[in-house]
């Protein structure tokens, strides 16, 4: 509800139009965010991997945060979890698409980074913990499952670990002719830090508002079409809210900020995994893990598999593959197609 106006009262064509409008808002703001975070990575000396994972990843995930928390609060448990998990799946596919735009070599090879390996490993843990909650007897304290605070704790501890090992790495990826080193650029000093942070905040506000529009449109779509919350979450809300990740990753590749491109996707996925416990906090009818059917459990398992394949690609660092993507990119595309097919048939 916005100023007495309910999106759920709109006709179906207008609901779809809102999805498109929200996607355009996210695309425009996301393109601006890429340049800002690239400059902030140099000015703050955080580096592209950490800035991509935290600043860019968290900001581009704001629409997902708004969607999952708001629809969970309104009692739509399956849509809340499916938006979060579906976002991780489609964003992993977007990394493959960004890989296609880089012609010199496989993106995972050129953007080798210990921080990105930490983020991918963290994501696997964050996806495994909800599976534990899904498959254990219903338990809740003040309506929250014990796994929920554990997920937040793991996220913070591993991020601290990644920051520490970035400054004092125990090992480094080998350099090749295709490896692109993350070095500060002179153009990052053109604007003041205050100007950069204000621009960053404005762009973040735009994508957050777009997330609100998508959340309300998603609820309206389930009511007007009869589609399941899981299917709407995977195909509509998560795809639209995640469009910023596609835009920012391709924009980062074109700027030559390869580590930022990979880190933005993987770090954003790790942040999106936090939307599962956020949804549990927002859902007021007990543990959200036990308020859903089998489809979100399947989605979590399949997304975990996709992330494991991606981690294998980051470790192997294949230089070239079919259509210039590595083996992991081909497998990720096949897995995503299988996910959509199973949800449709289910």
Secondary structure: elements and pairs:
Blueprint: H1 12-44, H2 48-60, H3 62-73, H4 77-100, H5 107-110, H6 114-134, H7 147-167, H8 193-225, H9 229-241, H10 243-255, H11 258-273, H12 275-282, H13 294-316, H14 327-345
Helix pairs in contact: 1-2, 1-8, 1-9, 1-10, 2-11, 3-4, 3-8, 3-12, 4-9, 4-10, 4-11, 4-13, 4-14, 6-7, 6-11, 6-13, 7-12, 8-9, 10-11, 13-14
Description of the molecule:
The chain has 346 residues and is mainly alpha-helical. The protein has a single domain (10-168, 194-345), classed as Up-down Bundle (A middle domain of Talin 1). It is 73% helix and 0% strand. The chain contains 14 helices and no strands. Helix 13 (294-316) packs antiparallel against helix 14. The chain is globular, with a radius of gyration of 19 Å. The mean pLDDT is 79.
* CA radius of gyration: 19 Å
CATH superfamily: NCX, central ion-binding region
H and E string: HHHHHHHHHHHHHH
In CATH, the topology is named A middle domain of Talin 1
Q: How many distinct helices?
A: 14
The helix/strand class is mainly alpha
Q: Specify the biggest β-sheet.
A: none
CATH architecture: Up-down Bundle
Number of strands: 0
Spans of at least 5 consecutive residues with low confidence: none
Could you tell me the mean pLDDT? 79
What fraction of residues sit in β-strands?
under 5%
- The backbone outline, from C-alpha atoms, is globular
Distance between the termini: 32 Å
Number of domains: 1
**CATH top-level class:** Mainly Alpha
| Helicity range | over 70%
């Amino acid at each position: 509800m916005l100023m007495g106006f309910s999106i759920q009262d709109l006709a179906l064509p207008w609901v779809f139009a809102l999805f498109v409008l929200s996607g355009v808002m996210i695309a425009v703001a996301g393109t601006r965010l890429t340049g800002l975070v690239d400059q902030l990575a140099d000015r703050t000396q955080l580096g592209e991997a950490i800035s991509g994972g935290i600043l860019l990843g968290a900001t581009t995930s704001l629409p997902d945060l708004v969607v999952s928390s708001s629809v969970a609060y309104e009692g739509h448990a399956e849509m809340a979890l499916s938006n979060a998990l579906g976002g991780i799946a489609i964003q992993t596919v977007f990394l493959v698409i960004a890989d296609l735009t880089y012609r010199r070599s496989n993106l995972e090879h050129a953007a080798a980074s210990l921080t990105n390996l930490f983020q991918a490993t963290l994501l696997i843990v964050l996806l495994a913990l909800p599976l534990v909650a899904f498959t254990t007897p219903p338990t809740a304290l003040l309506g929250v499952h014990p796994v929920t605070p554990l997920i937040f704790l793991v996220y913070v501890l591993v991020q601290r670990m990644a920051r520490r090992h970035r400054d004092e790495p125990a090992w480094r990826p080998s350099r090749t002719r295709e490896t692109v080193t993350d070095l500060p650029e002179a153009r990052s000093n053109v604007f003041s830090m205050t100007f950069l942070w204000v621009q960053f905040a404005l762009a973040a506000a735009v994508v957050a508002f777009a997330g609100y529009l998508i959340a309300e449109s998603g609820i309206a779509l389930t009511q007007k079409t009869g589609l399941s919350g899981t299917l709407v979450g995977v195909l509509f809300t998560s795809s639209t809210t995640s469009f910023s990740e596609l835009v920012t990753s391709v924009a980062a590749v074109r700027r030559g900020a390869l580590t930022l491109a990979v880190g933005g996707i993987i770090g954003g996925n790790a942040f999106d995994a936090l939307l599962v416990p956020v949804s549990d906090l927002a859902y007021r009818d007990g543990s959200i893990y036990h308020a859903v059917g089998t489809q979100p459990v399947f989605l979590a398992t399949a997304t975990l598999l996709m992330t494991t394949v991606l981690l294998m690609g980051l470790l192997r660092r294949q230089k070239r593959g079919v259509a210039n993507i590595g083996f992991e990119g081909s497998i990720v595309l096949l897995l995503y197609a299988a996910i959509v097919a199973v949800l449709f048939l289910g």
